[in-house]
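Hi there,

I know you've been waiting on this one. I reran it after we fixed the sequence typo, so this is the corrected version. Both the input and the resulting structure follow.
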Amino acid sequence: MSRIGKTPIQVPKAVTVDVAAGEVTVKGPKGERKLPVRPEISVALNDGTLTVDTTEDSRFAHAMRGTMRSLLNNAVIGVTEGYSKKLEVKGVGFEVDLKGKELILKIGFNMPKKFKVPDTVTVECPTLTEIVISGPDNQQVGHVAAEIRKLRKPEPYKEKGIKYSDEVVKRKAGKAFGSGG
């Protein structure tokens, strides 16, 4: 059995947590997160410490306890520090521009691709070949980064495309020059 659910979460001073029936709201300097609470789980706030407990003794309830504790911990980290993903655009003539809430990507197609940025995340383009996605919800940040990357995945021969900054693209050799036959 996992011991993740048993460990309490320390809530920083800048964060306010509101535990209501069926929902936990976490507010901080970087934003606000609302998390639904399953009926098998109870969440309590005592002296700046969040604890998660089960209301019934079943295997599913214990699994949900660990999951809920991880989600709450991610919410507390998200509203204090925030999450970010960095993407790199590689290729001759490939570039990125941000106009308002729309990301314009010139990534080797005859027309630039346009990506509408959701309100839950912020997108910055420090250079023509970098995209930085940040926000309080790590799931939303990762989803937006994956959607942008999906527009032009990096190919293994020349590494052209959109990749995560820490991603390693395994190169392929390509065709050999003439076999002499």
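Quick highlight: The longest strand covers residues 83-90.

Best,
R. S.
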